[in-house]
């Protein structure tokens, strides 16, 4: 599963092992709504892709956010356009919610 959180929209895509896109959804979303609201939308989008038959489950997930990230911990660091995101455990939350690394 690939997730791209932009400043004004979210893109979620399912790929196969060769990284060919099998399904893709885009949804308008203001990143300033905060991490809880944004992740609720990400999970809704992932569930829609799963329900559409593009995936039974997810073997792994990758995520991008529009701000600086401390990669070892997977957390945003003082992102200028993302109030409420500083130190939010992006990697951990996505992994726990989807049940995959």
Layout of SSEs?
Elements lengths: L1 E4 L3 E7 L5 E8 L6 H17 L10 E3 L4 E2 L4 E2 L13 H9 L3
Parallel strand pairs: 1-4
Antiparallel strand pairs: 1-2, 2-3, 5-6
Describe this structure in words.
The protein has helices at 35-51, 90-98; strands at residues 2-5, 9-15, 21-28, 62-64, 69-70, 75-76. With 101 residues, it is an alpha+beta fold. It has one domain (2-98): ATPase, nucleotide binding domain (Nucleotidyltransferase, domain 5, 2-Layer Sandwich), CATH 3.30.420. A 4-stranded mixed beta sheet has the order 3-2-1-4, covered by helices on one side. A two-stranded antiparallel sheet has the order 5-6. The longest helix is centred in the middle third of the chain and has 17 residues, at 35-51.
Give the terminus-to-terminus CA distance: 10 Å
Order of strands across the widest beta sheet?
3-2-1-4
CATH-defined fold name = Nucleotidyltransferase, domain 5
Return residue spans where pLDDT drops below 50 for at least 5 consecutive residues. Answer: none
H/I helix tally: 2
Reading off the top of the CATH hierarchy, the class is best stated as Alpha Beta
Q: Total strand count, please?
A: 6
How large is the share of residues in beta strands? Answer: 25-35%
Inertia-based shape? globular
Major β-sheet annotation: 4 strands, mixed
The ordered string of helix (H) and strand (E) elements is EEEHEEEH
Helix content: 25-40%
Tally of discrete structural domains: 1
Mean of residue pLDDT?
Answer: 95
The CATH superfamily bears the name ATPase, nucleotide binding domain
CATH architecture: 2-Layer Sandwich
- The helix-and-strand class reads alpha+beta
Round the Cα radius of gyration to an integer and report it: 13 Å
């Amino acid at each position: 599963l690939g997730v791209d959180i932009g400043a004004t929209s979210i893109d979620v895509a399912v790929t196969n092992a060769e990284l060919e896109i099998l399904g893709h959804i885009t949804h308008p979303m203001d990143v300033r709504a905060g991490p809880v609201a944004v992740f609720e939308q990400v999970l809704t989008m992932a569930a829609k892709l799963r329900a559409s038959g593009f995936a039974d489950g997810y073997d792994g997930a990758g995520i991008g956010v529009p701000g600086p990230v401390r990669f070892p911990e997977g957390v945003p660091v003082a992102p200028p356009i993302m109030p409420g995101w500083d130190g939010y455990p992006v990697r951990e939350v996505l992994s726990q919610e989807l049940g995959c690394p």
